[in-house]
Amino acid sequence: MTDSLRRVAIVGGSRIPFCRSNTVYADKSNLDMLTAVIDGIVQRFDLDGVQLDEITAGAVMTHSRDFNLAREAVLSSKLSNLTPGITLQQACGTSLQGALNLAAKIACGQIESGIAAGTDTTSDAPIVFGDKFAHRMINLTQARSAKQRLGALKGFGPGELKPVSPTNGEMRTGLSMGQHCERMAQEWQIKREDQDQLAYESHQKAAAAYEDGFFDQLITPWGGVSRDNNLRADTTIEKLSTLRAVFDKSTRATLSAGNSTSLTDGAAAVLLCSEEWAAERNLPVQAFLTTGRSAAVDFVNDEGLLMAPTVAVAEMLQRAGLGLQDFDFYEIHEAFAAQVLCTLKAWESKQYCRDRLGLKKPLGSIDREKMNIHGSSLAVGHPFAATGARIVATLAQILEEKGSGRGLISVCTAGGMGVSAILERP
Description:
Elements: E1 8-15, E2 19-20, H1 30-45, E3 54-58, H2 69-76, E4 85-87, H3 94-107, E5 113-120, E6 128-129, H4 131-142, H5 146-153, E7 163-164, H6 177-187, H7 192-211, H8 237-242, E8 264-274, H9 275-280, E9 287-296, H10 308-320, E10 329-332, H11 337-348, H12 350-355, H13 377-380, H14 387-402, E11 405-413, E12 417-425
Parallel strand pairs: 3-4, 3-5, 10-11
Antiparallel strand pairs: 1-8, 1-9, 2-8, 5-8, 6-7, 9-12, 11-12
Helix pairs in contact: 1-2, 3-14, 4-5, 6-11
């Protein structure tokens, strides 16, 4: 441990291309993909056989076999088997929270290095049976005699074999994230055309980033693909406007498949360390992770499910002594175009900032030209737990290319939570 806090360096990241569910990665598991991105870090920074202090990683859609996911990925990777793995889960904020946890340990001298990562596949979603059949199977495996086995099967009916379909609905409300976001869009009067415009811009920016070679170092080709297959460089506002609403069938509905993220498979990772550790290995420092904040909203009692980033960012800025305009870049996760627009509108609202955030004045508006400059989740996809690491690595590389500056990260998550962070390059 150290007597004073140290700067936390971001060396760089790696991800595999993000692909729509049930396409390229249909037969890949969370372990497969997580191992691939860890090995991407190993390859990029010459860490073959190196013992790191910690891997923090997780997934949202998991099987029972994924209980020790981070450690199993280490053992499957080219890192030293002496590297410990910690499995973490905070919905869509998983890998950003993992980075913040590692950063705290690095800052206080508890560890020197670590990888924060996330992976998710909805192609390999867990299919389970109902409680009655599950309990019957447990009783059957515990039976020690033929009589006990027959007893465990007594009353069995074919209906028990009907699987429980996986869902992304909120347990407390029964509504999907899209349904919740549609309600937010109505509350904040977010127009359909504004959502489509943001989605269009995301695809255009991401396509341009590929053409400019921005993703060359960040993406490790894998599974036969070298770029995100959700990206639609040829999409137009006209095409997007023709898509029907998907979460609400009323005439006022605004969220479509085009302005919402698709179900996506993929993984991402980012390497963090002390400056000393990086210098010893002659590794570049792209940026520094300086602070972060998590927050939650009471969506059960009708706060907007995805509004927690407004709180997390406001609290983080107060602690950091910064204003919302004190940034060169903004990386705001595009779970839905409406979510981004609701967040921006809330920060501009005098009433919301006063009544909900406890501020004397609004946080204000941001320069939209500085937001998601290489596209974001609407274009590249959103494998839930992987998004935070993707954004950290993207922003760190942006700052390195610029040579200096400060960037803000905002990620909304299921369960009414939000995670935010600040990256800087002096």
